[in-house]
Automatic annotation (TrEMBL):
GO molecular function: transaminase activity
Provenance organism: Aquimarina celericrescens
Domain HTH gntR-type: 16-84
Pfam annotation, one family: GntR
Protein's name in the database: PLP-dependent aminotransferase family protein
PROSITE patterns from the UniProt entry: HTH_GNTR
Amino acid sequence: MFPLKNNIVLDRQANRNLYLQLSDQIIGFIKSGKLSPSAKLPGSRRLSEDLNIHRKTVVAAYNELIVQGWIETLPSKGTFVSNSLPIINPSSFSNTDSLNKLKLKSNFLFISRPNLFCGSSRTPKNTEQLIKVNDGSPDHRLAPIQEIARTYRNITKKRYSQNLLSYGSTYGNEDLRNALATYLNQTRGLHLDIDNILITRGSQMGIYLASQLLFTKKTRVITGVTNYLTADNTFEDANAVIENVPVDANGIDTNAIEVICKIKNVTAVYVTSHHHHPTTVTLSAKRRMHLLQLAQQYKFAIIEDDYDYDFHYSNAPILPLASNDYNGNVIYIGGFTKIIAPAVRVGYMVGPKDFIDEAAKLRRIIDRQGDTLLEQTLASMITAGDIQRHCNKVLKIYRSRRNLFCSLLKERLSDYFDFEIPDGGMAVWVKLNKKYHWDNVVNEAYNHNLELNPEWQRYDPNNLGHNGIRMGFASLDEEEIHEVIDRIQKVFKNL
Ligand SMILES: Cc1ncc(COP(=O)(O)O)c(C=O)c1O
């Protein structure tokens, strides 16, 4: 018989009860085939003496195993591993090599997508001294988490909240859709009602749903070069052919788009009109009107990804293309991830009703509905003016961070970097002097406890060699900005 006595290890300091530690380990031995079906287990008295634990602990562990169906007790015969468990061949689990292989390799076919990128599956331990310069995320330390928690708590206390816990509309929480209709009409000059809104989990879900509905094999999407890589990935995954046009100081080149439209069918144009990703430039008024006119004439969709609308520093935000769309060409995408924090996975897609209805059907088979309680919370906060207040507050903070970051970049690092002060957004598009290579800069930066946007290659998938990356300033406070600039200076001294 497999000797439990020598193989069970119990930790009296652990958080888990001893009887559960014991039952867990016996389950492990059964699963690995070390204890085979019908194997007799020692009596509770003997096992308690062998393991130097109370007999009641063994009895509790055995009871747990009986309830779960792993073992059974036969009157006046003893306790046995259940006979009805599938027979496991112990040899296949006998060494750690085969166990490790099992964790890594599936025994079935599936479709892999080598062109998609998903980042690391584990969060690296955040050492206290390491400062990360991201590619333009909000400062989650400023998120109005207390207000969110208070509103959430108030909602869950009310009797009607019970309804919010059951299945709801695939289109998203109705109060949020109503609140958003009013909010977007007031703040962005849109003219929509609730039927034009689908709540999503962040902007990315909107880009995905739109792509799945718009593209089939050989359909064409026009994007700027360079572009937001995740959007490109999403279009490729929907089998679209990506056609690139240049981006200059006035945004995406609409004349180049017109040239393509004259000779090829175009299904959609993707734009980050307010602050182009990655270069941060704003699409000029003239090009906006041109693009809308082309969309009407050639009947293509404009996917307007307005991911960071609220953060424009130089003048009032420029109204989205969607505000001038009188022909049903624009699919407008936005969300709360940049306003509040990336973890608040609530966004929206706005478009003509027939399109939104199809998107809702598709959404239903991916994710039945959103997080209704959180959506209700955001609805209340929009209606109470809390979201707008928060935007106004962080806008001021981010503006002064942009000013500080850019002035220090200019003053202390202009030998290495070339950049324009962005009118909005959360990042500066920084071009590294071509004497240097980002690989070397990023690697040396780690020696100074600085992480400089390590995925820099994704800004140049076409290998144009522009040497540009985005450096996010919004998530760094004043002290951190000074520290980052100091450390970058040291990096270049060592190169
Ligand atoms: C241009 C652009 N679009 C969409 C997204 C995705 O945003 P969300 O987190 O709301 O899905 C991002 C995220 O950084 C972005 O930069």
